[in-house]
Design brief:
This protein is an all-alpha fold and about 450 residues long. The protein has a single domain, classed as Amino acid/polyamine transporter I. Helix 7 packs antiparallel against helix 16. The radius of gyration is 21 Å and the shape is globular.
């Protein structure tokens, strides 16, 4: 993987295409549940959550500009924080973060596919469809460096069409006054709406995926930081337009009643029955773009740990396929892990173990805790006066990134299941450190 295969446009579309396409479509009703139908509070939490990714991406871009080595966040943790941190970070991403998100988003594609064909949505249907979609995207990204990138570019452009159509239609044919005047029910706590940060964090998640292909981006020291800045800001603007637009078009209380089905109702209001089918096709492609983006980044992570001898069977997993030019063994390992998570997600859904939530929310709060470690490293660089970092880049922006992450973490704690989620992630991290200690007995 020595050649630079991906352009700046692909890096940006990987961020935009991975972030947009799943959460915004099926999390809008979850957000309104927490805000009790209050649109303005929904916009506020979207903005608060964006602080975490915009300033976070600006801070990560500082680290991205200082290395060309493969691995993305794993590399940054390794080079700027240490081997142990890289091991913990990598195992968390490989065994919890990526697979849980991939299986949920692939399942969402199954939900909308069932809607398209009028099939009853069952956990069994979503399981089978998600496995098929995952097999397809793991195949094209493992067998070719370029195919996944081409799909990502096309899917990102396509997915923006329904978002803008619904947003604009809301302002044009919707009833703005009625939507904003719907009186939300009183909440048990004046800050209970902050719990909406958990599903919104999911809707924003994926912005760091592009760092996993940093070493394959043309002129990565220049282009990746640009992508990390442009992508998240664009996402924030699109999210607010869409959220407000669909709330005006359908009505917040109606969205609460319809759940995930509110998107179909919005499409029917604009285009009628046939038009809703077209919108659903756009949405399915959009969601699949998110799956592709995550898979594109995920297949490289076991490889990134293996070349550092931080993963089992490193000699095999750390090989690049001469035939395909990709880490095929790493991709196969990733696919197996995703299959396991697909069945975990199936049983969690079947038994309704996480009401108004799913396994995708397990890793998100923990990931922001880990991001803070990297933000602190940039602050350390500033005080060590390394590379002449400005006060803005080395201090102010990283501090705002930490604050943004803390907002998401505190908001996530409002969900009673969050501590359980964090405990699961901690167990994986502890196992990773035990492995590290076993492989490096002489290192304290």
């Amino acid at each position: 993987m020595k050649t630079r295969e991906y352009s700046l446009f692909t890096a940006i579309t990987m961020i935009v295409g991975t972030v947009i396409g799943s959460g915004i479509f099926f999390k809008s009703d979850n957000i309104l549940v927490y805000t009790n139908g209050d649109i303005l509070k929904g916009v506020l939490v979207f903005t608060l959550a964006a602080v975490g990714i915009i300033f976070g991406s600006l801070t990560i871009s500082v680290l991205a500009s200082k290395t060309k080595n493969p691995g993305g966040l794993i590399t940054y943790a390794d080079e700027f924080s240490g081997h142990k941190t890289a091991c913990a970070f990598g195992w968390f991403q490989i065994f919890v973060y990526y697979p849980s998100l991939i299986v949920v988003v692939a399942g969402v594609a199954g939900v909308y596919l069932a809607m398209l064909y009028g099939i009853e949505i069952t956990p069994e249907i979503t399981l089978v469809v998600s496995l098929v979609f995952m097999a397809f995207f793991f195949a094209i990204n493992t067998l070719s460096v370029k195919l996944g990138g081409y799909f990502q570019n096309a899917a990102t452009i396509i997915k923006l069409i329904p978002l803008f159509l619904i947003a604009i239609s809301g302002f044009v044919i919707g009833d703005v006054k009625t939507a904003f005047n719907e009186v939300p029910q009183a909440t048990s706590s004046s800050l209970a709406w902050l719990a909406a940060l958990a599903p919104i964090a999911f809707s924003y998640d994926g912005w760091v995926v592009s760092t996993s292909i940093a070493h394959e981006i043309k002129n990565s020291k220049r282009n990746l930081p640009i992508a990390l800045v442009v992508g998240p800001i664009f996402v924030l603007a699109v999210y607010i337009l869409y959220f407000v637009g669909i709330c005006i078009l359908v009505g917040p209380q109606e969205i609460l009643t319809l759940g995930d089905g509110h998107v179909t109702v919005a499409a029917e209001k604009i285009f009628g029955g046939i038009g809703s089918k077209i919108i659903l096709i756009f949405i399915i492609i959009s969601v699949l773009g998110t799956v592709n983006g995550f898979v594109l980044g995920y297949i490289r992570l076991p490889y990134s740990l293996a070349i550092r001898k931080l993963f089992p069977k490193s000699d095999t997993i750390g090989q690049i396929s001469k035939r395909y030019g990709t880490p095929a063994s790493s991709g196969a390992m990733s696919f197996v892990i995703c299959i396991v998570w697909a069945f975990i997600h199936y049983f969690v859904t079947k038994l309704n173990l996480m009401p108004n939530s799913d396994v995708s929310e397990i890793p998100i709060v923990t990931s922001y805790i880990l991001y803070i470690l990297l933000y602190v490293e940039v602050i350390k660089m500033y005080f060590k006066k390394e590379d002449g970092l400005s006060t803005a880049k080395g201090l102010i922006i990283p501090i705002l990134a930490v604050i943004g992450s803390l907002i998401i973490i505190i908001g996530g704690l409002a969900n009673p299941m969050t501590l359980v989620y964090i405990l699961i992630c901690v167990v994986v991290i502890v196992i990773s450190l035990m492995f590290y200690k076993k492989e490096n007995p002489d290192i304290k």
